[in-house]
Amino acid sequence: MALVTFSNPDFKDKTVYAVAGSHTETLLKLAKENKIPVQFDCQDGECGHCLVRVTSIDEKDRMGYFLTDKEQTVLKELGKLTQDQIDQLHVDDMPSEWRLACQMIVRDEDILVEY
Ligand code: FES
């Protein structure tokens, strides 16, 4: 069970439980289920509207994560990641802080999601 806290300066923070066992639930799906107004459009990792910043609020180390090619492309277009940073994330096996909510699968870790 993961605790996901959604935060936006225009809204009250909201913390929800995520059942992280299925490895299929995206952050966007979780937000929609909980009526959290994360913006979105394509829901397919192409438009970049669902850009969020994700940080761990867990005692544990971050879990490794590999960005899909689609997500890398959009994050580069949005100016959130450079190719050098992407290469380094691969070497370190660390997730990027910037993510697309429609592409990010919720894992078993407590996170803060700024949208
Ligand atoms: Fe378009 Fe996520 S909704 S990239």
Automatic annotation (TrEMBL):
InterPro entries: 2Fe-2S_ferredoxin-like_sf, 2Fe-2S_ferredoxin-type, Beta-grasp_dom_sf. One of its GO terms (molecular function) is iron-sulfur cluster binding. Residues 2-115 form the 2Fe-2S ferredoxin-type domain. It comes from the Bacteria. It holds the Pfam family Fer2. This is Ferredoxin. It comes from Halochromatium glycolicum.
